[in-house]
Amino acid sequence: MMVNSKFIYNTKDLNKLILSSGTSYKSSSLYNKIDEMENNGKITRVGRNQYIFGDRKVFNYELNSNTAKRVNKLIKNRYSSDFEYVIYETVSTLNQFLNHLINRNVIILETNKFFLEHVFNTLKEAGFRNILFNPDKEDVFRYVEDDSIILMPLVSKAPIDRKNKKTTIEKITVDMICSTVLNCFYEGAELHNIVEDVLSNYKVRYDTLNNYAKRRHASERLKELAPKSMKDIFND
Question: How far is CA 2 from CA 6, 53, 203, in A?
Fold first, then answer.
């Protein structure tokens, strides 16, 4: 199959490429072939009716510290199953993208802004200490230490893994660009490499990434940091 210079393909493009290989396919079989290519890692879905050639890494992380696990268990037990929050740690999550690795592990907990005070009191009553309530940059530099908990508002309609209460590759990428809190944990010069690594090597929904970047007023910055071959992806 000859692949042309296009970066993103839709179903119609893929059908043409499959047929150009000389193999006869019924119309209904073409879609099965596309599913087969995706399952075999030959193509990756990056949006609604959008595909790129090649396999990509799937972003994932686990909570490693006892503190993070205890916080997560407390929130799950105290609130209903549909309570929206995400939790992750700087070491296990951000270090996936950094050259200069973070040594100090901090728990990031984001939830609806209307529940921040309640969650803060819940954590305090459970015995957790050094909780930074929606801190600014100076607070982070001054007070953060190992196993600190940073409690922040969750941006409405953010792309999160609601079932597992995790952040997603699309969310963490944009947040690393524009969050003054996360910016405290790595050198600004690393952002270009971070975005390039994510866009080049990870399974990303570009429409989701673009929409969240717009929501956080980070579209232009994202486009600046993207590899040249991908800048057109983020045009309106």
Answer: 11, 11, 23
Distances (CA, A) of 190 to 29, 79, 101, 230: 45, 37, 11, 19
pLDDT in tens, 157-204: 999 999 999 999 999 999 999 999 999 998 888 899 999 899 888 999
Q: Which two tokens stand for residue 104?
A: 């100090």
Rounded Cα distance, 156 and 228, in Å? 30
Q: Are strands 149-153 and 107-111 parallel, antiparallel or unpaired?
A: parallel
User: Whole-prediction pTM value?
Assistant: 0.85
8 A C-beta contact, residue 71 and residue 109:
yes
What CA–CA distance (Å, rounded) separates 178 from 162?
Answer: 22
Q: Can you list the positions of beta strands (E) in the chain?
A: 43-47, 50-53, 85-89, 107-111, 131-133, 149-153, 160-161, 166-167
CA 65 to chain centre: 21
Residue 183's nearest CA partner among 150, 215, 147 is 150
